[in-house]
Amino acid sequence: MTSTRISDRVVEIYLAAGTLMFVGWGGMLTLLLLWVPTVGARWMFFVLGLSALTGTSIPFIVFLSRRFGKTPISVNVLMRRAIWVGVIGCILAWLQLGRSLTWTIALLIVSVIVGIEWLIEIRERSLWNPNNANEE
Fold first, then answer.
1. How far apart are CA 5 and CA 26, in angstroms?
2. pLDDT category, 135, cuts 50, 70, 90?
3. What is the pTM of this model?
4. Is 37 helix (H, G, I), strand (E, B) or coil?
5. Interval 68-107: pLDDT, tens
6. Closest CA to 59 of 74, 89, 79
7. Are the C-beta atoms of residues 54 and 24 closer than 8 Å to each other?
8. Domain residue spans in the chain?
9. Angstrom distance (rounded) from CA 119 to CA 80
10. Alpha helix (H) residue ranges in 5-133
11. Which pLDDT band, with edges at 50, 70 and 90, does 9 fall under?
12. Which of 32, 62, 63, 89 has a Cα-to-Cα distance from 74 of 20 to 30 A?
């Protein structure tokens, strides 16, 4: 299976980012203004927060990968990194609801997730096959 690069699918990436931002931030605004804070609304807050933060981070990740990346990044890696940003934001919001978030815990969570991404990148590099390099 070949992975497509960013330059091949720029319109689709930004369309997905815009949709995620619109659904996430619009739903978050509706949730905060119109809903009563119940358990269901709290779960919806996290779902919409994940969508909003993921969609918002996509353009920044595209910019950073184009600016500082040595090789073109695949769309799958781009989306995975954007989802990590949303996951970090939701974990930090969940900890803040319980008043247990500190700077140390936040740095530890970010470090763990960056470490997981680093290990995934190492695994992907080890699976590289020179015979399939011409197909991408």
1. 30
2. low
3. 0.84
4. coil
5. 988 888 888 999 999 999 999 999 999 999 999 999 999 9
6. 79
7. yes
8. 6-135
9. 13
10. 10-34, 39-68, 75-97, 103-126
11. confident
12. 89
Kindly state the tokens that stand for 119: 């290990």
Q: In sequence order, what are the residues at sequence separation of 6 or more whose Cβ sits closer than 8 angstroms to the Cβ of residue 72?
A: 5, 6, 7
Which of helix, strand or coil describes residue 100? Answer: coil
- Spatial neighbors of 113 by CB under 8 A, at least 6 apart, are 84, 87, 88
Whether 26 contacts 44, CB under 8 Å: no
Strand partners, 74: 5
Please check whether residue 88 is in contact with residue 68, taking contact to mean a CB–CB distance below 8 angstroms: no
